[in-house]
Amino acid sequence: MEKTIIASVINLTKNKKTLLDNDYNNYQWWMLFSIDKGLLSAFKAAKGYKQKIIKYKEYPLPLQSRFIKEWFRIRDTKITKHWIKIPNSKRKGVGLWLPLRFHQQLPEYYTLKDSYLVKKNKSTIFIFVLI
User: Fold this and answer.
1) Dihedral through CA 126, CA 5, CA 86, CA 118, nearest 10?
2) CA nearest to 80, candidates 126, 21, 34
3) pTM for this model (two decimals)
4) Disulfide check for 7: which of 13, 20, 54, 102 has CB 3.0–4.6 Å away?
5) Across residues 33-51, what is the average pLDDT?
6) Rounded distance between C-alpha atoms, residue 116 and residue 64, angstroms
């Protein structure tokens, strides 16, 4: 049974926000117009090859579980104890470590599936799909 857990990205530095916005906006260009502005191939793979109709909407940035499941960490820091590392086109091989605040408690045992990054009201939200 799948369960959806939502987490907010908190305390973003100006640099991390710029890098994250860059990938998110480039993904929107890719989904709408197939214009590649330096987007990682991992993000490009989510687009259906037979997309014939352009839907002008905001698309959530997909995060494949094979990239993020090993990069989810629990560290007791002053900011938060939950951190995630996501791939980034400007920091290839390094990625971005982002602090998270979960809106509900994580189950004791779970397997992380493909998840999404969404921008809402000037905040960044992760939608994690767990089984």
Assistant:
1) -20
2) 126
3) 0.83
4) 102
5) 72
6) 8
